[in-house]
From TrEMBL:
Name of the protein in question: Glutathione hydrolase proenzyme
Binding-site residues for L-glutamate, renumbered to this chain: R102, T395, L396, N397, D419, S448, S449, G470
UniProt-listed GO biological process terms: glutathione biosynthetic process; glutathione catabolic process
Lineage, broadest ranks: Bacteria, Pseudomonadati, Pseudomonadota, Alphaproteobacteria, Hyphomicrobiales
Signal peptide: 1-26
Complexes and interactors: This enzyme consists of two polypeptide chains, which are synthesized in precursor form from a single polypeptide.
The species this protein was found in: Labrys okinawensis
Keyword Signal: yes
SUPFAM superfamilies from the UniProt entry: N-terminal nucleophile aminohydrolases (Ntn hydrolases) (SSF56235)
Amino acid sequence: MHHVRPVIATGLAVALTFAPLAGAHAASPAPVEAEHGMVVTTQRLATQAGVDVLKKGGNAIDAAVAVGYTLAVVWPEAGNIGGGGFMTIRTKDGKSTFIDFRERAPLASTKNMYLDAKGNPVKGASTDGYLAVGVPGSVAGFEYAREKYGSLPRKDLMEAAIRYAKDGYVLGQGDVASVKENADWLKRDPSTAKIFLQADGKPHAVGDTFKQPDLAASLAAISEKGPDAFYKGAIADAIVKASAAKGGILKKEDFEQYKVRELEPVKCNYRGYEIISSPPPSSGGVIICEILNVLEGYPLSYLGADSANTVHLMVEAMRYAYVDRNSSLGDPDFVKNPVPHLLDKNYAAEIRAKINPYKAGVSKELMPKGMGESKETTHYSIIDNDGNAVAVTYTLNGSYGAGVVAEGTGILLNNEMDDFTAKPGVPNLYGLVQGEANAIEPKKTPLSSMSPTVVTKDGKPFMVIGSPGGSRIITITLQAILNVIDHGLDIQEAVDAPRIHHQWLPDQIYTEPQALSPDTVKLLVEMGYKVDEGDPAWPVWGKAAGILVGGKDLATIKKGDGARYNGAMDSRVESGLAAGY
Ligand code: DON
């Protein structure tokens, strides 16, 4: 620490006496306030379904299950029963747990299944069509959560989803925009196209009533018979049949053998706040904690939200943490994850000692041995009247997943297999360059970045947060936390504020339009950074969903006159809604 830049050293001394410097961003609308419960999701009808369950006396886990099924109908780009995800739960008695219902690799999968005879990745093989599909976990996950932590019968939690699939729902601007953006992807499989597009190949219009009768029948069968209807019955049969006919490798045994895992969440302490987040097979919680541990040694609030100094330190912490992510993490049933080491505060101090306060680091120099040189998800946050907090991120991976629906099921299937390392050193859909720990093996789960997170303070729930965004999920969630804790933003401003991202490779800072001023970019370039200014929406900048407890921001919480629950859906998504009661 002897190279510490004067401003940082001064900052350490005075940080506690300074009010946080506000960022340069436009103000956001006020967060949504409620006293008894709060639900924040990417689609208004799913939010309402969750609030209705809470009002009926269901707990946050019941609401999460209802929202999960409803999003599968009203937010088909990511809501799903043909994909998988994670649920982080923190119950009113202070216990926390993590439900892993992510996809598993099919039994017939092999390490080099996406490579040609010369050992090069076959374009599209891990993203398009049936070969890209991992064994789905959502139905098993929702039922596991409901049975163990919920309180209402399955049919009550599936009622809204079945109704919206059967009777339809009126499409809003955001719903139509999602289909429009992905129309070319949806056109490729006739069974998919006929559900989501009109006969002329165009998306439905705002105001149209959109019905999904096949999906309604699948959901009704699950409601009546439970997960066996999906994993052991006609639904699995139809998917296996379509897969076999169209180049896939899914077998009935894949479905029969699917198992949910309940795991210990990852925990770390950041400036007195406890972060509870996703453990492997997600990298999310570990990497958020590793970055926070590094940043804890710097006076970020004094240095200011979007200053070149703060961005420099954030980016360096991200650079080191993403090397660890991409080289050492994988499914805990298959690899030994060095989680205690990555979460160790001494390790964070070692990283800080390597960060040059004046200069950008160089990603190539951190290349681990053996790695060579060479989209769509959704998150929702819920809290109930008892203080049970639930964060769920689940996904089909890319928007509308593999873009395939087995005829008669109405169920879009994921392309999660692309999250594996198809070949060490070769970037995946999100530009991630990964290693052997995440190589494909039968029944293995691909490494994820999904980070459903609950933050507590003094043993009480403080924040529920998460986002989609591929490899950026980690830095999106991180920035929402920093914006609240270090920069004093309210929860809506915290999820709306323009973001930056670095993921080790490619060695560049991605910045959302308006995230940094030209002066700041100039300072960063002088430090040696490549800054990709105004990075367009791909891969996405996310759709964060946050809840803050006790006030809309830290100042209000300290004053003690804030609303109990403060919900904020990212303004980046037009269809979303925060609502409570
Ligand atoms: O699990 C993961 O990390 C990815 N499959 C998430 C994909 C995602 O967030 C796409 N959405 N924008």
